[in-house]
Amino acid sequence: MSEENKHHATAAAILPLVGGAANVTSVAHCMTRLRLGLRDRALVRDEQLKALQAVLGVVEDDTYQIVLGPGTVARVTPEFEALVEAENARSAPASPAPADPDRGSGTGTAEALAAQGAALKAERKAKNSTPFKLFLRRIANIFVPLIPALIGCGIIAGLNGLLVNLHWLPGVTPALAAMASGFMALIAVFVGYHTAKEFGGTPILGGAVASVIVYAGVADVEAFGRHLSPGQGGVLGALGAAWLGVYVEKWCRRRVPESVDVLVTPTVTVLVAGLATLFGLMFLAGEVSTLIGDAADWLLSHGGAGAGFLLGGLFLPLVMLGLHQALIPIHTTLIEGAGFTVLLPILAMAGAGQVGAAIAIYYRLSRNTSIRTTIKSALWPGFLGVGEPLIYGVSLPLGRPFITACTGGAFGGAFVGLFNQLGTDVGSTAIGPSGWALFPLLDGNHGLGRTVAVYAAGLLVGYVAGFLATYYFGFTRTMLTELDAAPDSPADGDVAPGERVAEKV
Predict the structure, then answer these.
(1) Tens digit of each residue's pLDDT (9 = 90 or more) over 24-43
(2) CA 47 to CA 120: how far, in whole Å?
């Protein structure tokens, strides 16, 4: 089967298991997950969905998220969207279908399923829809669409740096530098566009307001006694400028007569938000950006090992709580300022601890074929930085191994942080990948060779620490007795992979 047919088949297999096209309200994807908005959560057949070969796991949040892995999700999503559109187009002209006799008439089972789905959705939202988390989710929604460009340009920047250091292809390196830097030079415009889109304004007006930040002519503007510089304030300034533009635009829409709205509203939006950006936001955001860069440098130069231990150890819990989204604008600000973020390689050690823990679980539960099968299928994605299958399918349901996985991440983070403290910066030119997938994006202040060596050694420390912590401290005697029963014993029974974990822990 060709790659195109394989991705089409995956999409076609997923669609009926999520309730069909009529149950899908929105389709999007991030680095690893197909994110679906659903009308009725009760129509989803979870176990059959998880059993699909291409599906690495599922996560419920404000959207229903199907983990497919990097690369795969970007190819499956358009196939899935096309299937949804085609199915909706076929059903649109038809008159309302008669009640299904198997589901009752009108007010029977259909309403019960709808009520059940609404209850499940409300329960999930109650846990994850605090104002702070909703705000962080909106910030993440602004930056997630930019990640593919950050990755592509970051890899080109790394390739260009290698060619420059080797004095190869001198006629090509200026072109590569232009490709790598062009997007970063205009990233404020894209941030402004997506900010306005996320907060309910006109996206192009958000981009227009944010574009003044990167315009070369701002060097002639004086604010707070200083001349501005192009790019000052960066993505933080763009966020503030576009958000203010949305507020002004909505104010105008409520008050400006419809007959002149098309002329007045865009003009007032760009004028008011633009002036506020030039004479206030750019300077203030620039100061905050400088503080963020200085704080990261100070943190790792003075407390590198300790800071790395905390960051590497706490990152998995932050992901579970959704608080890691607050780091996205910080990463982007560091990349804008220094060319790379020193935080991401440390945080990536959390994935190394998770992999080490999974290997230890594999050996400790030598007779539990269901868990070992899950680990075998999820381990290689884990090495490449896709940790959801191991987290949600193995360590988190077990409990203690999740904590020991965090311990492995802490020791890996401490190792990389120590080298930062000793003067060897280990950074990433883009956000998104981790694990082995981060190698092409590495950069630092002492050459690529040393940077790669420190990061690789940090991964090894994370693997070993996660393995040892889990092997020796990840299980109580009771857990081992219950989870590692012989295959033919009553404890095993005829259960599906993963069911025993949910029952015993």
Answers:
(1) 999 988 778 899 999 998 89
(2) 17
Residue 124 has pLDDT above 50, yes or no: no
> 374, 393 in Cβ contact below 8 A?
yes
The Cα–Cα gap between 35 and 276 comes to 36
- Annotated catalytic, 406? no
Q: What is the pTM of this model?
A: 0.75
Structure tokens at 46: 């979870």
Question: Which candidate, 289, 471, 484, places its Cα nearest to that of 369?
Answer: 484
Nearest to 435, CA basis, from 378, 374, 377, 387: 387
**Contact assessment for residue 66 and residue 38, using Cβ atoms and an 8 Å cutoff:** no
Residue 492's identity, in one-letter code, is D
To the nearest 5 percent, what fractions of the chain are helix, strand and coil? Answer: 70, 5, 20
Scan for tokens 């299904």, then name that residue: 100
**Number of helices (H), then strands (E), in the chain:** 22, 8
Beta bridge partner(s), residue 28:
35
End-to-end C-alpha distance for the chain, whole angstroms: 40
Q: What is the pLDDT of residues 282-323, one digit of tens each?
A: 999 999 999 999 999 899 888 889 999 999 999 988 877 767
Go through the domains of the chain in sequence order and give each one's CATH number.
3-94+108-129 (3.30.1360.60), 141-290 (no CATH), 339-504 (no CATH)
Sort residue 358 into left (φ over 0), alpha (ψ -120 to 50) or beta. Answer: alpha
Q: Which tens digits make up the pLDDT trace of 347-356? A: 999 999 999 9
String of DSSP letters for 241-285: HHHHHHHHHHHHHHHS-HHHHHHHHHHHHHHHHHHHIIIIIHHHH
SS (H, E, C) 182-203: HHHHCHHHHHHHHHHHHCCCCH
Catalytic residue among 30, 153, 252, 406: 30
- Residue 504 confidence class, pLDDT cut points 50, 70, 90: very low
Residue 83 is predicted with a pLDDT of 93
Give the SS3 label for residue 69.
coil
